[in-house]
Specification:
The complex is a heterodimer of chains A (132) and B (648).
Chain A: H1 15-34, H2 45-54, H3 57-61, H4 82-90, H5 106-118
Chain B: H1 8-13, H2 72-82, E1 87-90, H3 97-106, E2 113-116, H4 120-134, E3 139-143, H5 146-160, E4 166-171, E5 202-204, H6 209-224, E6 231-236, H7 237-241, H8 265-277, E7 281-285, H9 292-305, E8 309-311, H10 330-336, E9 339-343, H11 348-352, E10 353-356, E11 362-365, E12 372-376, E13 398-400, H12 404-418, H13 421-450, H14 460-471, E14 476-478, H15 488-492, H16 513-525, E15 530-536, H17 537-542, H18 546-552, E16 558-562, H19 568-580, H20 601-606, E17 611-616, H21 622-634, E18 639-643
Parallel strand pairs in B: 1-2, 1-3, 3-4, 4-6, 5-6, 7-8, 7-9, 9-12, 12-13, 14-15, 15-16, 16-18, 17-18
Antiparallel strand pairs in B: 10-11
The chains are: A mainly alpha (132), B alpha/beta (648).
Chain lengths: 132, 648
Amino acid sequence: MEHFHGSGRVAIATLAAILFLAAPRVGIVHAAQDAKSSEIPSGNADNGKQLFVKNGCYECHGREGQGSSMSGPRIAPDPIPFDVLLNYVRKPKGEMPPYTAKVISDKDLADIYAYLQSRKEPPTAKALPLLK
Amino acid sequence: MTKSNKTASGRRDFLKGVVAGAATLAAVPAEALPTAQPAQPIEARASMPVLPPMIESDPPADAEVLNIDRSGSDFMVDCLKSLGIEYVCAVAGSSFRALHESVINYGGNSKPEFITCCHEESSVGMSHGYAKIEGKPLCIFAHGTVGLQHASMAIYNAYCDRVPVYVVIGNNLDATKRDSGYGEWPHSVQDAAAMVRDYVKWDDTPISLQHFAESAVRAYKVAMTPPMSPVLLVADSELQENPIAEDAALHIPKLTLAAPPQGDSGSVGEAARLLVQAQNPLIVVDRYARTQRAIELLVELAETLQAPVIDQAGRMNFPTRHPLNQTSRRGAAVANADVIMGLEATDFWSALNTMHDQVHRTSRPIMKSDAKLISITTGDLYSKSNYQDFYRYTGVDLAMAADAEATLPALIEEAKRQITADRKRAFDDRGAKLATAHQKALDQARTDATYAWDASPVSTARVCAELWEQIKGEDWSLVSILRHFSWWPLRLWPFEKQYQYIGTQGGGGVGYNAPASVGAALANKKYGRLSVSIQDDGDLLFAPSVLWTAAHHRIPLLAVMHNNRAYHEEMMHVQRMANRHNRGIDRAGIGTTFEDPNFDFSKIAQGMGVYAEGPITDPNELGPALKRAIAVVKRGEPALLDVVTQPR
């Protein structure tokens, strides 16, 4: 596919990055979904929604966490276990930039997690006439 | 210049002997050829002798000439006509005023027709998009200095995309004839083409009309020979404006486009052997298809081998719903392949490797270490040094410096000849598995599209689905880039025809989409196609005046804004840096977002005479708005819908 370029003039990452973004990160997410979840902290979904935007999560994952084939996988609804998400955010393996505890606290991540959990399952593709 | 009172017929008499360059074009696909012009008789006569501008002396004071019948620019227009050039896109400029006047009066403002642009980047961008549909260039006029400076970034973009662009610039070479009152000193230059010589394939500065004619035809031929690229001619203002000599024996040479080079038979045979014997062959294709025939050939080759195709989308190369289209699972396909063939794969390396964007950039292959690589590309025939658009070197096992489209017939024939019954059975088994994987990927795309279905801002998948509902019964053409739109149309729509998608751009970052979509729509106009563009907000803001050009020239185009109110790609880059430096991203919007105030794109478009609605934030309002806008486009006018969207 085309190489990354901006609406402006910052340019160039390649198909390689696209592949790396799409495949391994989705793989991590799916693998994590099979793992047994540790304890899920309580969080404030309303605050999490604001933090999701403030911390730029939406930029790659969309405002609903729906993901994009070009920037980041779907992370909501039904997010991966919190401890897996926490570890990944701190030390991502793929193209995601790292978020240290200095930048975003565990408590804030718990709020974001609550927001992701609050997202509702969409209708199926078969139920949407435009996607048949 | 004062216009002559002589009649138009008199004007035309002088060149009735000119041999127009209607080409004999054997072995060149018909759709790639310029419109043939009728041959004109040879008998060029005019009232005054003409000398090359550098040696012409001033006329005596008592011999002031107020009128002339025929100027050099008339002959230049004949040259353009002989090449079948349909349009000239230009911002008016004094250094080509004679050419301008000759197009609209002598040439009758038809083939070429003058298209009024408001920025030279728009002129070139329109030419870029036009060529993607029509397979040949239109012409651009520009000032040799400031106009070319504006145009240069778009020329570079077209060069990177290997698209033919035909630029003619005005200049005032003779320093003794420059009028300061017209700004001709700062608008003159010694070597006008120098500025863009790194990214045009050929340029020339003719010093006589005959020289111009030969260079005009040569430039066209060079531009149209794969790898196609921009070319540039300098039309000196005196050469344009001086009268044609009474006894000038001018003629326009015949244009014969060069047949693209095919791979040699030995290499073709070896490529066929590797592909036929492979357990898991893979075809990677990028700037491959110039014609519908190219798509058909690739389908035939893929079906012959039952080989998966990964389309890097530089052109409309392969039907999106074909079971062998495995673009959505390219990582797995590359990792599984034992023979990989790149067809005009501009960045083959990145199809086979990954680059990790961390503090220390690392890369790793995703293909098997013993996979055999084949490349067929005209990229091996032409390269320059300074600008680095040639991408990372890929060590391949078999390289054909040849045109992939021209080579495929021989490769198909050779592959068919080598296939045994055993291999055929293996191919059929492979094909069945690939068909299952293709259907699974399509189902997954539909499922992915459901997420954020009712969200506001509107999801890009929802925009794509709503748009398809409105155009699926039309003869549509998607005239925009799609990467920022998560490639949704290519994932969800059935693309089959060459004109249904204009492919990616070249260098990027110059505001290509808006002018290219208008240029492509201009090409589609005569075919009655419904041109549709998904228009990024940041892209449009470079030179939005191209909307006025679309309105003024009644170019039917539906532009649906992907208005995420940011240079979103750049925002992610800044975010990456902020996180890398452990500073948080609170300020990543500085310099990257378009808020406070928001752009009102519907008002911008309306201010340029374009029907527009928006901003649309409720996805349920989109369908009815699309219906209304398409009705406008079907009347032959442009329309724009400002849709506030999710980032990607």
